[in-house]
């Protein structure tokens, strides 16, 4: 019998079993009553795939063009903060896994590894997807973050403007979540 999960739900169960409960609350929790999370989950479930049977699939591929550049696939890992809560390799591990699949990576401004370290791991990988950096407006520090991203080889910025304040996250609060030693938003630390 295989121990490898076969479904997304099985991966989720396995992650919950293996993660520190307060870290799980951070990674899986939602703000307030979780209405947006439930709505997003339902919207995903509502996507229907319509197979096109009895058609030639010769030459099929997932290649696409994003921002004028050809990439192996249109898939990018969304920006997720503090990935070292889930795995010791954190954002670098996620970026390498995405690159191995030809997918892209949008590094969170709240990453637990420096944007330079993550870019160094994957920017020269052949067959990787886009390497983008998520940017929250940081006042006077914004220019420095943009320059660091550009100097490190990020191909685009993903500007996040809808989160000026974090919502009330009851699951985190109830689980007693706090960032452990060694996990921080290192890219926002004063340089």
Provide an overview of this structure.
This protein has 191 residues and is of the alpha/beta class. It has one domain: Aldolase class I (TIM Barrel). It is 35% helix and 12% strand. The protein has seven helices and six strands; from the N terminus they run H-H-H-E-E-E-H-E-H-E-H-E-H. The protein has helices at residues 8-18, 21-28, 35-45, 90-100, 115-122, 142-152, 170-175, and strands spanning 64-66, 69-71, 76-77, 104-107, 131-136, 156-160. The strands form two sheets. A four-stranded parallel sheet has the order 3-4-5-6. Strand 3 (76-77), helix 4 and strand 4 (104-107) form a beta-alpha-beta unit. Helix 4 runs parallel beside helix 5 (115-122) and helix 5 (115-122) runs parallel beside helix 6 (142-152). It is globular and about 55 Å long.
- Biggest sheet, strands in spatial order? 3-4-5-6
Between the first and last Cα atoms, what is the distance in angstroms? 51 Å
Give the proportion of residues in helices: 25-40%
The fraction of residues assigned to DSSP E strands is 5-15%
Number of alpha- plus pi-helical segments:
7
Mean pLDDT: 91
Sketch the major β-sheet.
4 strands, parallel
Q: What's the CATH architecture?
A: Alpha-Beta Barrel
CATH class: Alpha Beta
Unreliable residue runs: none
Q: State the CATH topology.
A: TIM Barrel
- Note the overall shape: globular
Number of strands: 6
Under CATH, the homologous superfamily reads Aldolase class I
Rg calculated over all Cα atoms: 18 Å
Estimate nothing, just give the exact number of structural domains: 1
